[in-house]
Amino acid sequence: MISTFFLPTTVLCGEGSLEVLPRELASRGVARPLLVTGPNVLRGAVFQRIRKLLPQAEVFNEVAGPTEKGILDGAELFVSSGCDGIVALGGGTVLDAGKAIRLKIHHPRPLAEYAVHPATADMPVLAAVPTTGGSGSELSAAAMIVIEEESRRIRISSPHLMPSVAIIDPELTLDLSPAISASSGLTAFVHCIEAFLLPGYHPLCDALAAQGARLASEALPRVLANGRDIEARRDMMLAALTGAIASQKGSGIAEVMANAVAAPGRLSHGAAAGVLLTEVLDIPELWPQERLTKLAQLTGISSTAHAARDLLARTGIAPRLRDHGIDGGRLPEYARAAFEDLSTGGEPRSTEADLLAIYRRAW
């Protein structure tokens, strides 16, 4: 079996690393970046810091979803403003928006076509600056985009989407709310656990996934107890980073199902993934016992299922989908969407009936 691993992104990690962003952009020939961010970041101190560092940047903050319309608007602003690079500042949604805008600059096809049509390397420089420790989109080759006209989400994936440089500065996460910290932290934990448990020979991804799972299981409770714990914040950003790299191995069941059922303003992706992981891990036939045993040896987590339930309980996130207003009558629809998700390629149980059974257990 041949396994593939790629990491073209330069990563600068540590407290205060945001300060080197202007140097990194200049070294890549970027003089006027498009600064892609979200409304929440726009109102905070982090935005003011980066604005002082990049006073020449053109700001774009219409990234909800992100939707295809928002992506096209961002690409249009990039061109009309004479931008020569992109900085994405925010959580996973913002970073995905930055990747998709980057794609559209020199790729004229409709976005949905790039879910199946390969992209080329003809893209402007992209600097990813995460402000949460969750999705790891700063080191992911994928972006999730909402196609509003078809009421569906698509997953665009290409090694060329990986950012040119990623700034991992835990200082940017110190003021995150407990709710966002919990949701994003669960996302990182789920990515790591499922990446390790997926079948296939991929020792590099497995090593990173195990390390990330250990970091998340230890650091997330500390972050929730004290949001100003800079070491715990750093460890959560590293867990997100390792989980994203390890996910080159494939996407797991909880991740795919969370993509389908998450609802903005009601159920975050991280909360959905955390709830679903507790059910997925309770199905022993999904996971070879030797993989669970190896994970326990590498992480010190004696029971992965127990650890997932305990971590979910510590976040205070309600443990059933119905608690988040999810309509039980729509579970077959969600199962169909998850089954059709292109990211189901790496997971071991992908029949629509099986996915529906897991949704019902979690509901």
Written description of the protein model:
The chain is globular, with a radius of gyration of 19 Å. It has helices at residues 21-27, 39-42, 45-53, 68-80, 92-105, 178-197, 203-225, 230-246, 253-261, 269-280, 289-299, 304-315, 331-340, 352-362; strands spanning 10-13, 33-37, 58-60, 85-90, 125-130, 142-147, 152-157, 165-168. The strands form two sheets. The chain has a six-stranded parallel beta sheet with strand order 1-8-5-4-2-3, sandwiched between helices. Strands 6-7 form a two-stranded antiparallel sheet. The model has no long low-confidence stretch (mean pLDDT 90). It has two domains: 10-172, 3-Layer(aba) Sandwich (Rossmann fold), CATH 3.40.50; 177-362, Dehydroquinate synthase-like, alpha domain, CATH 1.20.1090. By secondary structure, the chain is α/β, with parallel strands linked by helices. It is built from 14 helices and eight strands.
